[in-house]
Amino acid sequence: MNKQREGKRGTFVEILGDTISERQLIISIALSVLISLGGYKLGQAIFPSFAEERMVNSYSLLLGIAGTVTVLVLNSLLFKPKRILVEDEISATNMAEVFADLQLDIEEELKLIEEDPITKRELQELGVLSNLTGNKKEGKQ
User: Fold this and answer.
1) What does the pLDDT read at residue 135?
2) CA separation (Å) from 94 to 31, 91, 101, 107, 134?
């Protein structure tokens, strides 16, 4: 868990790049544990009546795993990520801010881009390379 942010409807937590509600995280974890463990325990109770004794643990584990997959799908449908995607026009100023935030050296990045023709072509097509070279010239002045 990285940062916590105060939102309109509660506290949010950033985990692996996704921003989620703490409340929804706790509910999701509780559902996952209860259904997975419940599936395993249910298998321990019902499989001895018709499965071989040595296979009861394996079948119970499979039932628990099936519960885990089911709750994974359920959680992904119930709780959507709270990230906000903002698409801005790429400008030299924006690029300079991004490089400063990431503590990257523009000259070093340009050198790496120049060495990789595929990346260079893609950045030229997107119009990003001209912004990067513009930032490099501004940085020298």
Assistant:
1) 61
2) 42, 5, 11, 17, 12
Higher pLDDT, 30 or 87: 30
Whether residue 105 sits in one domain with residue 70: no
Quick one: which of 138, 141, 140, 135 has its CA closest to 109? 135
Could you give the CA distance from residue 96 to residue 108 in angstroms, rounded to a whole number?
14
Domain containing 41 equals 4-78
Quickly state the pLDDT bin for 61 (edges 50, 70, 90): very high
Of 101, 83, 99, 103, the residue nearest 91 (C-alpha): 99
Examine residue 84 and state whether it is found in any structural domain, yes or no: no
- Same domain for 61 and 123, yes or no, is no
Number of domains in the chain: 2
Q: Any idea which residue has 């359920």 for tokens? A: 74
Residue 128 within a domain: yes
Q: What token pair was written down for 3?
A: 């940062």
CA 50 from centre of chain: 42
Convert the pLDDT of each residue in 83-135 to its tens digit.
677 776 666 677 777 778 888 888 888 888 888 889 888 888 887 777 777 66
